Amino acid sequence: MHWQKVTLVGVGLLGGSLGLAIKQRNLASRVEGYVRRESSVAECEKFQVVDKASCDLESSVKDADLIVLCTPLAQMRGLVEKMIPVLRPGALVTDVGSVKGSVVQELEALLSGAGAQFIGSHPMAGAEKTGPAAARGDLFEKAICVITPTNRTRQDPLKKLRAFWEATGARVMLLSPDAHDDLVSRSSHLPHVVAAELSNYVLSPVHPKEQAMLCANGFKDTTRIASGSPEMWRDISLANRKNLARVLGVFIEDLQEFQHALEHEDKKVIEDFFLKAKERRDQWCSSSASPSPE
After folding, report:
1. What is residue 289's predicted lDDT score, i.e. its pLDDT?
2. Torsion sign (Cα): 152, 91, 67, 162
3. Which end of the chain is more exposed for a tag (fewer CB within 10 A), N or C?
4. For 141, phi and psi rounded to 5 degrees?
5. SS3 of 45, please?
6. Which of 96, 186, 189 lies closest to 147 in space, CA to CA?
7. What letter does residue 85 receive in the DSSP assignment?
């Protein structure tokens, strides 16, 4: 399907990459972007991630038949409330947020009452870098994109949204919002907390100055995602706090079991810990089709 006008509300890494993908694949006649700062307008123009960038939300979304929310989760409801008066009847609205339950619950009814359709999306493609300068038109190639329909989702908009993400190169998976949030609490949100705590603990100024000098590639690779946006990860952690708190509890228990094995010099338990991890990761790598950084 060819869209007449796609508006990206927020043009950072994901929004900018989506703009490039849409333009490069000729998925829309026009791509516009809403940003909060004038400096961001100039940056969008410099890297040509959209046809037009503006700090005027209403003009950006007016007449758009597809609107993609690419902002931190806590900003979405307020922005949607502001855009409702100028929404095109029948407009399809989606997002790229990492939590779906609260977003869908808030925005689906709000937009339905305005004559639009909201369907949640989460492309599992990202990086620690931010802003239009980091945007890549191939970011979504082979990445999983989860779409989270509900019993209020109409089939025609759902088919259009699925076709849109597939046209960017993504592989679409349909999940309920709750199932999505449960799964990503382990595979995406927990790793960010772990990477952040490793960075906080190991690089703390209370340690000798030589500590940082002994952090080599293993530490760098393990903590890469800790360089992500603090604002975004604050919102994600709070929005999925029940699931994240639960899996953190299980994770801490597993670490305590390993700690117990160390204290008791249990060689078999320690070796099995590392062996199981290697086998599971090696199997995942061999069966996974080019997993995207997330």
Report:
1. 53
2. positive
3. N
4. -55, 120
5. helix
6. 96
7. G
Show the domain range for 150. 3-175
pLDDT at 291 over 80: no
SS3 30: strand
Residue 75, Cβ neighbours under 10 Å: how many? 15
Six-digit token string for 130: 């931010």
Report the distance separating Cα 163 and Cα 147, nearest Å. 11
d(C-alpha 57, C-alpha 33), whole Å:
9
**CATH assignment of the domain containing 273:** 1.10.3660.10
Q: Do 29 and 136 reside in the same domain of the chain?
A: yes
Structure tokens at 50: 């959209």
Tokens coding 232: 């975004």
How far is the C-alpha of 87 from the C-alpha of 131, rounded, in Å?
Answer: 26
Q: What pLDDT is attached to residue 293?
A: 43
Q: Whole-angstrom Cα distance, residue 155 to residue 104?
A: 16
Average pLDDT over residues 150-171: 97
- Asked whether the whole model's pTM tops 0.90, one would answer yes
Among 125, 153, 175, the domain boundary falls at 175
